[in-house]
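Listing S7. Sequence submitted for prediction.
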Amino acid sequence: MTSTGSIRDTEASAAIRHHYDVGNDFYGLWLDESLTYSCALRRTPEDTLEAAQQHKLRYHLDAIGADDADRVLDIGCGWGSTLRLLATTHGVGESVGLTLSEEQAAHIQGLELAGVDVRTENWSRYEPDSRFDGIISIGAFEHFARPDESSAEKIAQYREFFTRCRDWLDDGGTLSLQTIAYANMSREQASTFIQESIFPDADLPTLAEITAAAEGIFEVQSVVNGRLDYAWTCEQWAHRLRQRRDEAVRLVGLEVTARYERYLKQSAMGFRMGKICLLRLVLRPYPASLFAAGAQ
């Protein structure tokens, strides 16, 4: 008999591969040089995409105290931009990256970063051999729930994630989380095109669902809504893709290229209109004794 968890993992893996295994060369045409595929952090109007992505990475690295960390986990590590900085800039002795994309894992392995272990593994199946000083998760949380799940089911799934993260962290450790979320829009009002053609079998959280799931496990120390940052980021990506459209078509074909152009345009509009938002949360675990007492 196949378990519900195994079915979920299979569906999640297939959905990730559908989107991220289009090809590293294709993404390389329109992402920045670090292949950072998540919302940038624009500090000034003069910031380039490259500078804004570095601001974002530093935000999360500073949140977990990377300069003083010996061991860090990156859940949804993408093409390794965070892992690269952990190894080369912050001197972290051991970093583990989790991804469900074979293309991304192969890219990171090719970088040959000292102390970096990348695994093609779902967080729900991962069992570390020791704890971490910090955990970073950028752009993965929005893939944890499915469109057919109720809000209560989504919260239960998120709560499992937070429970695991708390158990994986050392005392005093920090989780820095970044996710797209529903804002002034319900799931029923979301774009069918994006739900079915871009991110199948995935559903966004709401801020209320995130905080409900974290209650008693993590203290939410800060929440920042960077939706205009993400609108700008999507516009930057769309502009770069338009500039290299002929190359994109040669790599992945006209249909895939047009699909991504439509997706980036719709996403930018959704962020501009406040229908969806981009949440950056810094969370600190409550002491285990307090969690245990609250669970009784």
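Caption to Listing S7: primary sequence and predicted structure tokens for the chain studied. The two ends are 33 Å apart (CA to CA). DSSP finds twelve helices and seven strands in the chain.
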